[in-house]
Amino acid sequence: MQTSPTTGTALLAASLLVALGASGASAGPIELLPHRAAYRVTLADSGRAGAVTSVQGGLVLEWRAECEGWISNQRLGFVAATAGGPGFTYDVRFTSWESRDNTRLRFSVKSFDDGKPLEEYRGQAALEGPGGKGVALFALPEESRLELPPGTIFPTEHVKRLIAAAEAGERMVTHSVFDGSGKDALSTVSAVIGAPREVDGNPLWPVRLAYFGAGRNDATPDFAIGFELDRRGVLHDITLDYGEFVLKGRLDRLEPLPKPDCR
Q: How many CA atoms are closer than 13 Å to the CA of 55, on its beta-carbon side?
């Protein structure tokens, strides 16, 4: 499994978008928290080749609720040292907006390699309705169109279904997800949900998401994300598996954000 940090962070940003207002998807009341979370990023595993020897950086996940939808602003930056060669720096930024009815999505992702622009994707997508087909229109890096098959869902709806599955005790669920992360943004996402552990009386579910390109049949995912999810939508112990190396993010600071007054 090999992928770039650009792809990984875009998938992280989209797939872990907090499902604010998802309380109706679960068996009990859930008070999900609009927030800004800062994580300290280090190297968890240098991979089989051992080319990356250390990583120091940070990840910020900001989730805001508005009356019309949800806004996600996220950034990953790190400096990596390598064995027998020069190190490198990386910076990737992802922004998305999803409508309250989960049928419209706007997205933008930019990445920088050693301070120089590397990739940029921007566009919007829409579904005909829940469970219906749709279309994604890219404005950058060039104008293009991607047909979305029936059953495609966007990131917030995906997380709603993960929460509902966790509450119901399900251990594996699979969905077709479009997240706007790049040219291969339509994926089959398989989620494995572990038994929760209790922290201060609240469940904390271990979740692992494996991403497969749409239409692929092999068993090796393009990318994998691991995290622990609490009932407020806060993520703990994030793991980004790039195949060539693995990063871990430890929650360092959590700042609640205000909720909108939509009366």
A: 27
Domain assignment present for 145: no
Q: Which long-range contacts (CB under 8 A, 24 or more apart) does 99-103 make?
A: 99/68, 99/69, 100/21, 100/67, 100/68, 100/69, 100/70, 101/130, 102/127, 102/130, 102/153, 102/154, 102/156, 102/157, 102/160, 103/127, 103/128, 103/129, 103/130, 103/134, 103/154
User: What does the block give as tokens for 51?
Assistant: 């080319």
Q: Tell me the residue range of the domain where 92 lies.
A: 5-122+151-256
The pTM (predicted TM-score) of the whole model is: 0.81
Asked whether residue 180 is domain-assigned, the answer is yes
What does the pLDDT look like over 154-196, one tens digit per residue? 987 887 888 888 989 999 999 999 988 887 889 999 999 999 9
Residue 128 lies in a domain: no
